[in-house]
Description:
215 residues, single chain, Rossmann fold, four-stranded parallel β-sheet, 8 helices, 7% strand
Amino acid sequence: xxxxxxxxxxxxxxxxxxxxxxxxxxxxxxxxxxxxxxxxxxxxxxxxxxxxxxxxxxxxxxxxxxxxxxxxxxxxxxxxxxxxxxxxxxxxxxxxxxxxxxxxxxxxxxxxxxxxxxxxxxxxxxxxxxxxxxxxxxxxxxxxxxxxxxxxxxxxxxxxxxxxxxxxxxxxxxxxxxxxxxxxxxxxxxxxxxxxxxxxxxxxxxxxxxxxxxx
Length: 215
């Protein structure tokens, strides 16, 4: 988990009630949204924090590891090499599994999502995406670590971003939500767009099922 203070409602990755299987949370002290959602993050510093927390979580009984930010896709391979348990860092991992679809992505920050993030998880680097506006209520809460959440406003912003995505990129037939704070708005987005929407909870349900199948 990133070191944040913003509200985590049901559906958010940071709320245990979002899952239908047991989860363990551990905070990476001093590693916040600005450290993860960056074009050029301090990769050695972030990886040290990820490795340390992976070791502790595995010792506490975790059988697999994820992160609370889709931008940490950058560390998929590096973290997998040092983690005692399998790793699924980001919803962006789902893109390479959807070869029959034309996938579009809604991200927390369009200016900071780079081809390197897609390449790190084996997704096409030209995958189309749109971000939530920098002056949005979403950004005020989740990127600037606000204390309050206006759910209705954020939902409208997410739906607007989805409409923008399909308008800019005709032919998209599935949407992936990079951001782990966006699952609460998935149903509204699917209803408005008439398209399937996949989020980090979908990723982790499949990940968890696969881990149990191997045991």
